[in-house]
Amino acid sequence: MIVNKIKSVTIRRAEALFLAIVLMLASCLVKILSIQNSPIAYEAVDQSEKTVKLSETRGYIYDRNGLPLVNCEKKNSAVILVTPENKEFVLKLTGEDNINNGICMITDSIQDIPESKYTKSYYTVSRYGENPLCSHIIGYVNSDGIGICGIEKAFDKILNDAGGELFLKYNASAQGNALAGSGIEVSGENFDSPAGIVLTIDKSIQRITEEALLKSEIRCGAAVVINTSTFEIEAICSIPCYDPNNVAVSLSDENLPFINRAFSAFPVGSVFKPVVAAAALENGMNVSHQTECKGYIETGGNIFRCYNFNVHGKVDINLAVEKSCNCFFIETGLAVGAENLIKTAEKFGFGKENRFCSTLVGEGGNLPHFKSITSDSQLANLCFGQGELLATPVQIAAAYAVFANGGKYKTPVLLKALINDDGEEYAYYKNDEEEAVINRRTAGIINTCLYNNMLNGTGINGAPYNTASAGKTATAQTGRYDDSGNEILCTWFAGFFPFEEPLYAVVVMNEKGSTASEDCAPVFKKIAEGITEYLNGQKGS
Fold first, then answer.
1. Can you spell out the DSSP letters for 229-250?
2. Mean pLDDT of 77-84
3. What is the pLDDT of residue 94?
4. What is the SS3 string spanning 70-137?
5. What is the side-by-side strand order in the sheet with 60-62?
6. CA 100 to CA 183: how far, in whole Å?
């Protein structure tokens, strides 16, 4: 009995001891699992270094003054390795009830997060930002960072190579959990490189131009600002714009926002008339020459009328520009002849493609060969900018720059230089070749007519309050009609300022216009006023 009792007690003790050992082992196992599955494993078991990409950049696209047109918006961020010592701080910072990972990313704008072994600050870059400029010129990249159009596509390799990456490095266990011992490291590869491309665009002038156009009644159109000496394009805008941050929303827009209307050719109308006058003066027409306007002129078996059936009476070149008299310019052009007129227009840049880079090409438009003009009716149409004549806003801007600078033409340019990793310019893009188009006397006569037009003629609504200017309106027939049977008109305003020493030629085009003096002229006025204020501000600073 006693022996059996002793055996029974011994067995119970052994069972109890076994159970205790099992429970102890189980407890240890729970602790080990808890540590291994916690946000941070404090024991480096099979330790390895982990690398995580935090941010990446693409090469810069700058304006002429070195101001970035992309990569403008930077958001401060931080990465924190959560430890028992800083966990409460992280909880307050994030507002979250628990932290489920040893690495905590803070991507909102932050302030006063002290740098430490476990806390590193960095920034991310928004390629285009909330208010992108020059969308049709810069283009956009897809989700893989590949340039799809514009500068982004033409210089995809250069911009991609100029970019950099920012990495987070930390030690991790075999299970991938962050180890607290060694802290964290944030390092970059070419992340802060200034390398990229410089455009001729002036960021301030671009913003002035875009705002003036976007706030106008024009829904489909363009505006161009070109330097009258260098023929560098300092602002160029096409509307409607698309959002490079979300191009998908523009795919179904019936107004086709992906078309760059500044590079597209449209019917020209009366902004071509100064070219006709220049051809006449260069070919011997006396500046005092007059013609009798009866409100219409008959030639080639067709009758051509002045706008709104107006009868202008005796008109010279000055009054003809002010009143936009079709009869004067038809008679003048017929006297000059098709060959002389076409050759003059060619020198002004009509009919020439403007190739800025592989993905940015301005259409050549259409300037008929003089041999294809076989009737007076064809020539008459051309004399007031109608018929087969088509031109882009860039071409018209360049033509008016010729008048403004006294008669010289250069090929318009958009690219200025490339920038290396040291911030130095190289591979300059130049347009040094200059061609004499008309003599200075001819330019002076035309410019005076355009100046008077701003004071007394069709351009009066485009006259800026803070500078003298010269310019011309146009309302061109397109031969296209809307659903109501009304002809769609293409309206223009082309001019330059300041009048005495012109700096900029500006063109505004409305693809679906009404009257140029009402829709395009006020936009020219806003642009000229804004640029003048900007330039005056620079002088005062």
1. TT-BEEEEEEES---TT-GGGG
2. 86
3. 78
4. CCCEEEEEEEEECCCCCHHHHHHHHCCCCCCCCEEEECCCCCCCCCECCEEEEEEEECCCCCCCCHHH
5. 60-62, 196-199, 415-419, 425-426
6. 18
How many other CB atoms are there within 10 angstroms of residue 294's CB atom? 13
- CA 119-144-125 angle, 5° bins: 40
CA 412/CA 430 separation, integer angstroms: 10
Phi-psi category of 308—alpha, beta or left, where left has phi over 0 and alpha has psi -120 to 50? left
β-sheet bridge partners, residue 81: 103
Which structure tokens are listed for 89? 């701080």
Question: Do the Cβ atoms of 464 and 525 come closer than 8 Å?
Answer: yes
3-state SS assignment for residue 27: helix
Q: What is the pLDDT of residues 417-426, one digit of tens each?
A: 999 999 999 9
Alpha helices (H) along 117-225: 135-138, 150-154, 156-162, 203-214
How far apart are alpha carbons 166 and 155 in whole angstroms? Answer: 23
Domains with residue ranges and CATH for the chain? 203-540 (3.40.710.10)
Cα pseudo-dihedral 484, 487, 488, 490, rounded to 10:
-160
- Least Cα distance to 92 among 75, 73, 106 occurs for 106
CB atoms within 10 A of CB 88: 9
Report yes or no on whether pTM surpasses 0.85.
Answer: yes
> Per-residue pLDDT tens for 35-44?
233 333 333 3
Q: 531 is written with which tokens?
A: 């640029």
* Whether 507 contacts 400, CB under 8 Å: yes
Which two tokens mark 431? 């347009």
Phi, psi of 377 (to 5 degrees): -65, -40
